[in-house]
């Protein structure tokens, strides 16, 4: 980050979802409900997959970390957003803005690759079931999750300083509800070619690489399902990855809508609405999708509600590989 920037811009003003005064309270209540559901849903998934012995498998281990990522990403964005609905001056300091962008990048990149890891897990479970516990062992699971977080962190420490290396010496009003990359770069009074190139290369490579893993995994899964002779087995096998396929479709559909639209059609308002979806709405929907479409999660929730006082050490009796 350029020290010279601090003498020119020391804070940014966030317009928010809307600058209409009459919408601030209704929007505050709407997003308070969305964030509340996000917190309850994702903490519920984290709790169930931690304490229920029947959910101690690689699939639910990855689901737990997807819930951690969703919860963290929303928490980086939503509290500041909610407070700003109630304030007349919606300011964010220079370093607070940079920290928020960095945190957002860590978890959005981690989510992209966590979904790819979960697709690979389903591929191995369905297409190579005899090798499942060798290929997706506890050590491999921990390694994949660690690399996912590490790569997200590395992306953040490269992209964030790059974005804030430009000069902000004119307007400090961000047409967004959080410190996002493109709204920040539009404020710059210096050349943004290098940061825009870095952002484009990073975003494109992340999306293409992760989507390739997802598409190849599900292509092989579909082929494997079609080869099955029993319709009952096909239905049961498809149901094991239906929730993840729904989550992947919604998440990548939003990203592709943002990044594949023609530049002539790009607008900050469209970007803002898409950002609402993948930073707040999708993290709220994911626990619902996995809860409503997954019999194991629903059964675990019923067991937990019937015996909420079960100590962690007694509930968590399973090991990786059981009930996959």
**β-strand number:** 3
Report strand %.
under 5%
N-to-C series of helices and strands:
EHHEHHHEHHHHHH
Widest sheet, order of strands: 2-1-3
Largest sheet, strands/sense/barrel: 3 strands, mixed
> For the residues shown, what is the average pLDDT?
87
- Helix tally? 11
Helix content: over 70%
Could you list the spans in which at least 5 consecutive residues all have pLDDT below 50?
Answer: 1-7
* Oligomeric status: single chain
Radius of gyration: 21 Å
Structural class designation? mainly alpha
- What's the shape? globular
Distance between the termini: 47 Å
What does it look like?
The chain has 324 residues and is mainly alpha-helical. Helix content is 71%, strand content 3%. It contains 11 helices and 3 strands; from the N terminus they run E-H-H-E-H-H-H-E-H-H-H-H-H-H. The chain has helices spanning 24-51, 58-85, 94-127, 132-135, 138-163, 181-185, 193-227, 231-259, 268-293, 295-306, 312-315, and strands at 11-14, 91-93, 173-174. It has a 3-stranded mixed β-sheet with strand order 2-1-3. Helix 2 (58-85) runs antiparallel to helix 3 (94-127) and helix 8 (231-259) packs antiparallel against helix 9 (268-293). The radius of gyration is 21 Å and the shape is globular. The termini are far apart.
Keywords for this structure?
single chain, 324 residues, mainly alpha, globular
Please outline what is shown here.
This protein has 324 residues and is mostly helical. The protein is built from eleven helices and three strands, in the order βααβαααβαααααα.
């Amino acid at each position: 980050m350029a020290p010279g920037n601090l003498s020119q811009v020391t804070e940014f003003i966030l317009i928010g979802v809307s600058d209409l005064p009459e919408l601030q309270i209704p929007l505050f209540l709407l997003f308070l409900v969305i964030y509340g559901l996000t917190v309850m849903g994702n903490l519920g998934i984290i709790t169930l997959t931690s304490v229920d012995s029947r959910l101690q498998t690689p699939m639910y281990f990855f689901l737990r970390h997807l819930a951690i990522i969703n919860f963290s990403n929303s928490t980086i964005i939503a509290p500041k957003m909610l407070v700003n609905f109630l304030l007349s001056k919606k300011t964010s300091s220079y370093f607070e803005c940079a920290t928020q962008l960095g945190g957002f990048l860590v978890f959005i990149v981690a989510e992209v690759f966590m979904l790819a890891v979960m697709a690979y897990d389903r591929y191995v479970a369905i297409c190579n079931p005899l090798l499942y516990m060798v290929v997706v062992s506890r050590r491999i699971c921990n390694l994949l999750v660690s690399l996912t977080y590490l790569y997200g962190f590395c992306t953040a420490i490269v992209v964030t300083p790059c974005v804030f290396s430009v000069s902000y010496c004119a307007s400090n009003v961000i047409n967004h509800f959080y410190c996002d990359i493109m709204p920040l770069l539009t404020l710059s009074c210096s050349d943004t070619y290098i940061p825009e190139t870095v952002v484009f290369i990073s975003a494109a490579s992340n999306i293409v690489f992760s989507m390739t893993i997802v598409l190849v995994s599900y292509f092989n899964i579909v082929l494997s399902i079609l080869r099955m002779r029993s319709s009952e087995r096909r239905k049961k096998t498809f149901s094991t990855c239906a929730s993840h396929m729904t989550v992947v479709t919604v998440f990548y559909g939003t990203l592709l809508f943002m990044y594949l639209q023609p530049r002539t059609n790009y607008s900050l308002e469209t970007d803002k609405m898409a950002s609402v979806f993948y930073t707040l709405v999708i993290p709220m929907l994911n626990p619902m999708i996995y809860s409503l479409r997954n019999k194991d999660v629903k059964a675990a929730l019923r067991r937990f509600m019937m015996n909420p006082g079960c100590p962690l050490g007694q509930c968590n009796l399973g090991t990786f590989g059981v009930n996959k």
